[in-house]
Every structure is written in C-alpha cells, then in structure tokens.
Amino acid sequence: METFFDALGAVGLIFLVIVGLIAGYIASLIAGGRNRIFYLIAGVVGAVAVPFILTALGVIALGALGLILLLIVGAIGAAVILAIVAAIRR
After folding, report:
1. Burial group, residue 64, by CB count within 10 angstroms (0-12, 13-18, 19+)
2. Is the Cβ–Cβ distance between 47 and 16 less than 8 Å?
3. How many CA atoms lie within 13 A of 54 on its CB side?
4. CA separation (Å) from 25 to 10, 59, 75?
5. In this structure, what DSSP letter does residue 60 have?
6. What percent of the chain is predicted at pLDDT more than 90?
7. Which residue in 19, 43, 48, 67 is deepest, having the highest Cβ count within 10 Å?
8. pLDDT digits (tens, 9 = 90+) for 45-78
9. Does residue 49 contact residue 17 with C-beta atoms inside 8 Å?
10. 77 exposed, middle or buried (CB, 10 Å; 0-12, 13-18, 19+)?
11. Residues 6+ apart with CB under 8 A from 39
C-alpha cells in the first residue's frame, strides 16, 4: 500500500478528485435532481476509493503503469459507485 502512495503522489490524488467531481457532475445532470452535492461526493468517493481498494487487493501494477491508467480506473470506479447510488435511490 505504501508503494501505491509513493506512485500516486499528491498530484495523482488531486486528479482523482477532479475526475470524481466531473463524473458526479455529469451524473447529477443526467439524474436531474436537486441533490447535486450528493452526486459530487459519491463521484469523488468512487474515483478515490476504487484505486485504493484494487491496490489493497494486490493490483500493484496500477500505480506503476502511470497516471492515465489510474485516472481511467478512477473514472470507472466513480461510474460504478454512481450507478449503485442511482439504483439504491430508485
């Protein structure tokens, strides 16, 4: 896990937060509700949590393969979390 933090760095974490905010904003536009902040938070949680979970499970190549792959995984994680949130809210 420590190698993940070394590879990720502060810039990578900031980029993951930005990816999560963008995904949350798009999801709030699609949902059309008044809970825009809820979608933003869920997007950030998904974008940041999924790479950490994958690293904890032993996918250490995630941090080694670069920032682009990390951001792609973060975007997929945000989309999955937002889909789960949307399914629960219905």
Report:
1. exposed
2. yes
3. 19
4. 23, 29, 12
5. T
6. 0
7. 43
8. 888 888 788 777 776 665 556 667 777 778 888 8
9. no
10. buried
11. 24, 25, 27, 28, 31, 33, 82, 85
